[in-house]
Each structure stands twice: as C-alpha cells, then as structure tokens.
Design goal:
Elements (H helix, E strand, L loop, with lengths): L1 H27 L3 H21 L3 H25 L15 H21 L6 H5 L4 H9 L3 H25 L6
C-alpha cells in the first residue's frame, strides 16, 4: 500500500511541476497562440489536481468553463487579430527587473503570512459534506444571476474583440 501512496504523491507532484512549466510557457512564449495552448494545459492540470483532491465537481467545472469556454474565447480573439509574433512586434518589457523584485517581495510576504497564520480545523468543518446536487441547486437557484451577468460580460468582450479586429484590419476590395 505504501508503494501505491508513493506513486500517487509522485503523480500529483508531477502534475504540479507540469502546471508550473506550462504557466511559465504562458508568460514566456513569443507566439500568443502557443501561450493560449499552455494556458489550456495549465488549466487542465489544475483540474487533475482537483480530481486528486476528490473534488470531481470542481474539476468538471474547471474543464467546462475555463478550458471549454474561456480558452475558446481567447483562441477566437487571437485568431481575429493580426501579427501574433513577428520582427516588428516588441516582445519584451522594460519593467522586467522591477517586476521580479516586486514578485520576490510578494512571495516573501505571502510565505511569512502563511507561516504566521493559525489554521484551526474544527470537527464541524471536517464532517461537512456538500453534494454535487446541493452545489447544482445553489448555482441554478441562489447564484444564477451572477452567472448570467458573467455570460453577458464574456459576450460583450467577444463583440468588442470583433469590433477592434475589424477596425484594425485593412479594407479588402474585390
């Protein structure tokens, strides 16, 4: 049994390492389409972590909403724009050094905060079980309005992308 647990731990750590590699690919690749593919892979890896934590509903939501919806929207927006990568497109940022310094400070503060925070776990929290049926009723009942608002915002972003892409596109004459 220990060998099986060791294999499961190794698999989870391997998925975490893959998520980290794909996340680095999102911010370092020069081609926007490749960045979007890395983002999709990182989101799928996150769904794998949810499955390992026995949160199958969250894994399904992660795949359906983020990978299925948001990544599709991002890829569609990328395909509508021109000049994904090229010699005339500036590919680096002059703020890299301040960003790295700020990131190091943020990570240091975050680690200090995590180590100083007491994490009490109560018996009621350990015994609480939420079913997928209960989550579905909440999402389609109490929280249906926020989801509808989010869908309108995503639709507006898609329409805005099309309008911006059409303004920048050169006129084609037959």
């Amino acid at each position: 049994m220990e060998l099986l647990q060791l294999g499961a731990k190794f698999g989870i750590y391997a998925v975490m390492a893959a998520i980290l590699v794909f996340a680095l690919g999102v911010v370092t690749f020069r081609n926007l389409f490749h960045c979007a593919l890395c983002l999709a892979a990182a989101l799928i890896g996150t769904a794998g972590i949810y499955i390992a934590l026995q949160a199958e509903f969250l894994a399904g939501v992660q795949i359906l909403l983020y990978v299925g919806g948001v990544i599709t929207l991002v890829v569609f927006a990328i395909m509508l724009t021109e000049h994904l990568a090229g010699k005339t497109v500036r590919q680096n940022n002059a703020q890299s050094l301040p960003a790295i310094v700020g990131l190091a400070g943020f990570v240091t503060a975050l680690i200090a905060l995590i180590l100083k925070t007491p994490w009490p776990v109560t018996e009621a929290a350990l015994k609480a079980k939420t079913s997928a049926m209960g989550l579905g009723e909440a999402l389609m009942g109490t929280y249906v309005f926020p989801f509808e608002v989010i869908s309108i915002v995503l639709l507006a972003a898609l329409i805005g992308t099309v309008v911006i892409a059409k303004k920048d596109a050169p006129e084609e004459r037959p």
